[in-house]
């Protein structure tokens, strides 16, 4: 019997996207450049975890961090081209969720 192997690139991509909160952070940034506090309040994530995820996504080339040396310092996060290329994937997961996932509050979500 032939055993199939999983492509290492696919495995790495799934590993990145399956980290807790990572997909939600990327999804939030699809709507445009945001500051740390905006992402944190929209996603509902602790500051430490968000900081860790943003650093990892920056290292992976998915998120761009831009610092504006003003008083106070302004830091903004946005998706790179690589990050934006995940939009169709995340939108398909969103579409799938509307058909197949039930939520406790069963509130409606608007699809863009």
Notes on the protein architecture:
A three-stranded antiparallel sheet has the order 1-3-2. The chain is 51% helix and 12% strand. The protein is an alpha+beta fold and 112 residues long. Strand 2 (63-68) and strand 3 (74-79) form a beta hairpin. The chain contains six helices and three strands, in the order ααβααββαα. The chain has helices at residues 8-17, 22-29, 36-43, 47-59, 81-84, 87-100; strands at 34-35, 63-68, 74-79.
Write the layout of secondary structure elements.
Layout: H1 8-17, H2 22-29, E1 34-35, H3 36-43, H4 47-59, E2 63-68, E3 74-79, H5 81-84, H6 87-100
Antiparallel strand pairs: 1-3, 2-3
**How would you state the average pLDDT, rounded?**
92
The structural class is alpha+beta
Main beta sheet: 3 strands, antiparallel
- Broad shape: globular
First-to-last CA distance: 45 Å
Number of helices: 6
Secondary-structure element series: HHEHHEEHH
Strand portion:
5-15%
Spatial order of strands in the largest sheet: 1-3-2
Q: Keyphrases for this structure?
A:
globular, 3 strands, single chain, 6 helices, alpha+beta, 12% strand, 112 residues
